[in-house]
Amino acid sequence: MAAILPERRQCRIMAEQPKKTLGLETVEPAVTPPPAEQEPAIEKKPVSPGTTRKRDIPQGLWTKCPECEEMIFDKELEENEKVCPHCSHHFQTTAYARIASLTEPESFEEFDADMMSVDTLEFTGTAAYADKLVKHREKTGLKDAVITGIGRIGSHEVGLAVMDFNFLGGSMGSVVGEKITRIVEAATERRLPAIIISSSGGARMYEGMFSLMQLAKTSAAIAYHGRQKLPYISVLTHPTTAGVMASYASLGDLIISEPKAMIGFAGPRVIKDTTQSELPEGFQTAEFLMERGLIDAIIPRTELKKRLNEYLDYLCGDLD
Ligand SMILES: [Zn+2]
Q1: 55 C-alpha to ligand 1 centroid (Å)
Q2: Ligand 1 centre from 91 Cα, in Å?
């Protein structure tokens, strides 16, 4: 790997340099290439595949870490739950990948798998909502931005909802709100703890008021769950903002977050314009909010299952 990197970087740097034309631009190249049938002046010796350096490169794709700029082999990144093995940068992952890494094999039973959003307002803008839904369903293989169900973490059955940012920025419309409400209600009925893993840009503007109504509905279901003395753990991931942060994401008995996640309600520019004051650096990060008591713990993704299991042991002692 070390032998390959400098060459890759060099290629990129060279590609960025502007071409020198000396003021002469011609459509034809300065030197006309020889016709294909013409014998090359120097005969190239065939290179046996066994001696090429390409054989040393494992098949697959590489991803450049935006934080430390190391190249990571995709398979290695997948195996490490999409966390950079060099600097612990947490890449975006999918709802199903999270469920697979958190729950015991074969234990997850999905609820409302076929529930789909409808374009009630017939919203059109730069792109129609109906078209966006079709495009994101095809792109992600999901029906909407949350997967819910009941699964087992260690020995604990839990009502679990996991949002997926890849589907329309994890925005909360009627389906996200309804599925979360139903899984929390199912957890209440079965006397199970609830865990919601959030990742969202907020309420889904294409559904207008219908999206905003989900804030009250989900919050009411969580309040009822809490009144039955059942624990709810909210897990925040990058980013968790706006309507989702203003409802179920901030209502956990325990609120935990992945490292360096952006957490907030309004965007920094809106807050700055409204308050007419300078904002402290990093004020919308998980670390900043933990220092001030909103978040209880910051836990790397690779340790989340173990830590959730410990919290559930502690919180569910008298439920079983
Ligand atoms: Zn990194």
Answers
A1: 26
A2: 9
**Beta carbons of 204 and 168 less than 8 angstroms apart:** yes
Cα–Cα dist 37/279, whole Å? 68
Contact 298, 257 (CB under 8 A): yes
The DSSP H or E segment spanning 157 is: strand 156-163
Cβ–Cβ under 8 Å, residues 65 and 87: yes
Could you tell me the distance, in angstroms and rounded to a whole number, from the CA of residue 282 to the centre of ligand 1?
19
CA of 206 to the centre of ligand 1 (A): 35
**Centre of ligand 1 from the C-alpha of residue 5, in Å:** 15
Ligand 1 centre from 54 Cα, in Å? 25
73 three-state secondary structure: strand
Q: Looking up tokens 């809490």, which residue turns up? A: 226
If phi > 0 it is left, if psi is from -120 to 50 it is alpha, else beta; for residue 140 that is: alpha
Q: What CA–CA distance (Å, rounded) separates 173 from 221?
A: 16
Expressed in angstroms and rounded, the spacing between residue 87 Cα and the centre of ligand 1 is 4
Q: What is the pTM of this model?
A: 0.79
Non-local CB neighbours of 52 within 8 Å, separated by 6+ positions: none
Provide the greatest CA pair distance for the chain.
86
Q: Pick from 204, 211, 293: which is nearest to 257 by CA? A: 293
- Which residues, in sequence order, are bridge partners of residue 72? 63
Residues in the chain: 320
The whole-number mean pLDDT for each consecutive block of 10 residues of the chain, a chain of 320 residues, reads: 39 39 37 42 46 51 93 94 96 96 96 93 89 95 97 96 96 97 98 97 93 96 97 97 94 96 88 86 91 96 97 81
